[in-house]
Amino acid sequence: MGRMDDAKALVAQFRNVPSDKQSELSPKGWKLGRAELATALQMRLEGRLDGRPYPYQGQANLCGEAAFLYCLIKDRPDHYVKFAIGLWENAEFNLKNGPEGADLWVRPGPGTIKALPVSGQGGINQLDWLMMGSLSKPDRGNAAIDDGLSAATYPKDLVSWFASVGSQYIIRTFRLFSQVSGGRLVDFRNSIAHLSSSWTIFEIKPAIIQGVENIRFERHWVVLRDPAIFSLGKSCISPTIIDDDNSDKVTLSIPFVTWGYEDSPEYRFKINGKDGQLTDPTVDQFMEYFHGALVFPSIP
After folding, report:
1. Strand (E) positions, the chain?
2. 136 and 145 Cβ atoms separated by less than 8 Å
3. pLDDT (tens digit, 9 = 90+) per residue, 221-239?
4. Mean pLDDT, all residues of the chain
5. What are residue 223's DSSP bridge partners?
6. Measured between alpha carbons, how far is 14 from 118 in angstroms, rounded to an integer?
7. Where would you tag: which of 11, 163, 257, 268 has the fewest CB atoms within 10 A of its CB?
């Protein structure tokens, strides 16, 4: 059996209780029934929960948590399911994954549990809040859907979460004040080089994402997808040869995954061209929106 089969078997096992217990709520106070959670997990594994294939933050400031859980679902859907069930049953879960992982206990506080949204509240579903809200304030903290800067994900948080599941970072470009001043071209170029074989996560200004009507936060974590295409004139080039002399001439086309109120979960970076039409940005233009990158190997 593969890991997806293992994950589905865990959901079936969790659901397999006498009929009079199907609707029982969490023993730890989550106002979420067993059958409801099992159904939500099944639909998430099938990529169709609320019509969305990936974790979804809605209006909450949980893009870093969504990025991590997206990678976890792709590599270890079984561990993702264990995480959700552990929170529901015990209001705590150790994210450590195998001998390569590190202990990281996620223990949501009573405020996080009480803030579990009702249908449609904050644009986030109950499964995503159970997991992402808990991860946001893992040490008995109390998360709320309308948390602002207090819910911000810092690079060290993503590094810690990935390390707990056995994935030590390959590249970490952030330096002191880089989240304010922006990233460097060398950081962009080096991180893109790993895209085909690793998880490449960018922190960007969300204004570059088309379809965002209300930009609530100035930083946003997204996960890049392969293939990244770089063009100089009519020729495709390797990102390794991009430098300060040609970055204003090289255009980029990179798919990425996002989690908020955008029109779609998958995009390519676009800007408004001189004629008002959307167009691929040059690398130089993209750097105005780029704050830094984290690169991780696949989760074992």
Report:
1. 93-94, 105-106, 171-172, 199-204, 220-224, 229-232, 235-236, 250-253, 255-257, 266-268, 271-272, 278-279, 290-296
2. no
3. 999 999 999 999 999 999 9
4. 90
5. 201, 257
6. 23
7. 268
